[in-house]
């Protein structure tokens, strides 16, 4: 039964009505840190002002680095989302799962309540709101312990989901291949296993809405031994998938074609960029996690080298560890890539946070040290002044995957970042009757000069070392 169908059997089709609860823990501590940082910054500013007044004008203040360091401490972290930004992202997640947001609440606490996460008073408020808007579920932008989930289910008049359950549900919605379905089911079962006891209302009927896709509640009603056996079987199935992928990579590695992987925050435009570079027609959607299964396509760089471009699943803040583990077979394309294209949304108001979260997952995959090109996407949504500023920044490539702007600069940057199968220059002398050789040169190299000497053709070319090696007998000298 799809998410658009009602939880009561699907007779009437509608979106599930969801109440969103944003939980901002440590708000008081962050406020204190910001106040203390502001006080330190003000004190340092006063000291510097006094020094500048006392110091002779001919002798500037020494560059001790103290003021820069203190200012950096005083500046609040740019990688932290505030509650409003977190709520906006969470709203997108619920929409991607097929839900309709009918109410939103924010709870700020210094520390979580062990029993309910948000405290008894807030639970009563949410229960009243959920009843008044006839909500089908309450979704928390935070992970719930088994005890918290059980207590909230008992106190609220509808189904309760936490952040991990919601993301798992979206993954189940978008898993179309057998491999993707295996990985999602494994992640769901591993998450649900410690939460089997006392499921109450959630166990009373077959699933038909958000949070109930994938293995289904009938599996969760079986005893733990059966679920553990299913988990073991899924791990064996995924291990066989891993072996097949390894064999495919070994066959690819027999031909020197490097792999470049697209990574980035969900909905940064990776699939649109993949389509723009490869001419493929993979699904591109504004919905989060529209791409789950990796896709590989060959493209040609300006140097005439061939590479394989890989499109991968997007990352997100607080990506469930079970997903990183379950999707390791898929994410191995990232680990095996020679260069990573980190696609970022240039129009995002919290790009620093998104970048930090992607790097956190890359570190978990032991891929953080790989050569990485920062690709600032969606510049078509910016004003002319902002766009020009991005285009002039060094170390980053500004593009619009939708319009194609900046694609040449990106391909050139990939060319420079690759170290395998390096580009070489050489002078060749080929008989004119060697049509196959001349065709190979035209197809795989850049011809700079061409001269005819009787029955011979003299060429100055640049191209990949692998092809140059096969033309060794025609080379006159290397540049």
Number of helices: 17
Radius of gyration, rounded? Answer: 28 Å
Helix vs. strand class: alpha/beta
Strand order of the largest sheet: 6-7-5-8-9-10
Helix content: 40-55%
Principal-axes geometry comes out as elongated
Average pLDDT value? 77
How many strands appear in the DSSP assignment?
Answer: 14
Sheet bearing the most strands, described?
6 strands, mixed
What is the CATH superfamily classification of the largest domain?
A: P-loop containing nucleotide triphosphate hydrolases
Work out the strand percent: 15-25%
Termini, distance in Å?
Answer: 66 Å
CATH class of the largest domain: Alpha Beta
Low-confidence runs: 1-12, 48-79, 198-206
Total of domains: 4
Q: What is the CATH third-level topology name of the largest domain? A: Rossmann fold
Q: What is the second-level CATH architecture of the largest domain?
A: 3-Layer(aba) Sandwich
Quick overview of this protein structure:
By secondary structure, the chain is of the alpha/beta class.
